[in-house]
């Protein structure tokens, strides 16, 4: 696991500036534009919210604009440095941390947001258990899992050649079952789709087919 996560840290350090160039557009107009409204619908504005896998901190900053107190956490030191330089709010703090070993006591956070982070862990169950540990009982957590049509999934392709990769292939329905079996309930869920997908057609489909054509699937979970 150390080798996996050290490689993930290295690659995200190298990609930090590239990510930073498009993060604002993703959160304001692109694939992440519906996340903050989804979070604010369910998550109370009390205590501190952990944004785990915060990248350059734009999502963390948007949460603060909605009245939350946020600690943004990311494996990449380069991402955290960008976040500290670019995103200022009196209720916003950033810290480098690995989701597998969060440097906080049990039941620290009143909520969490984890967008496209669990896909980059070697052991998603261990990561989920660590998230559960630092959440207060009945706390909400918004999790975004890359869907089958998401371009970043090409990062796991080379596993077919028996090469080591740092992106797992967990699907939304697999994650939901994992969460259900390990102390969470699903409160709500919704999909994010590529621009070419017909929204009217999607609404007619059952959940499993909606997930099958999604770019990303958002879950609102509650710790039990």
From TrEMBL:
Top-rank EC class of the record's enzyme: transferase
Domain Methyltransferase type span(s) in chain numbering: 51-142
SUPFAM superfamilies: S-adenosyl-L-methionine-dependent methyltransferases (SSF53335)
Keywords, ordered alphabetically: Methyltransferase, Transferase
InterPro entries: Methyltransf_11, SAM-dependent_MTases_sf
Pfam families per the UniProt record, alphabetical: Methyltransf_11 (PF08241)
EC number: 2.1.1.197
GO BP field: methylation
Keyword Methyltransferase: yes
CDD domains: AdoMet_MTases
Keyword Flavoprotein listed: no
Gene Ontology terms, MF aspect: malonyl-CoA methyltransferase activity; S-adenosylmethionine-dependent methyltransferase activity
Stored PANTHER family: TRANS-ACONITATE 2-METHYLTRANSFERASE (PTHR43861:SF1), TRANS-ACONITATE 2-METHYLTRANSFERASE-RELATED (PTHR43861)
Name used for this protein in its record: Malonyl-CoA O-methyltransferase BioC
Organism per entry: Anoxybacillus thermarum
């Amino acid at each position: 696991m150390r080798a996996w996560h050290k490689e993930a840290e290295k690659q995200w350090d190298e990609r930090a500036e590239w990510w930073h160039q498009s993060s604002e557009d993703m959160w304001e107009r692109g694939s992440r534009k519906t996340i903050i409204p989804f979070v604010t619908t369910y998550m109370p504005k009390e205590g501190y919210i952990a944004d785990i896998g915060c990248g350059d901190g734009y999502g963390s900053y948007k949460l603060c604009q909605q009245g939350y107190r946020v600690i943004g956490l990311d494996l990449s030191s380069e991402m955290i440095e960008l976040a500290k330089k670019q995103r200022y709010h009196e209720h916003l703090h950033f810290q480098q941390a690995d989701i597998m070993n969060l440097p906080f006591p049990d039941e620290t956070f009143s909520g969490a947001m984890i967008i496209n982070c669990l896909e980059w862990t070697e052991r998603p169950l261990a990561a989920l258990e660590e998230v559960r540990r630092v959440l207060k009982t009945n706390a909400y957590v918004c999790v975004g899992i890359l869907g089958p049509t998401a371009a970043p999934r090409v990062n796991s392709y080379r596993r077919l050649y028996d090469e080591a990769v740092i992106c797992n292939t967990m699907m939304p329905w697999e994650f939901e079952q994992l969460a259900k079996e390990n102390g969470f309930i699903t409160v709500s869920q919704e999909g994010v789709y590529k621009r070419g997908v017909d929204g009217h057609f999607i609404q007619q489909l059952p959940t499993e087919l909606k997930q099958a054509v999604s770019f990303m699937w958002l879950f609102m979970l509650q710790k039990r």
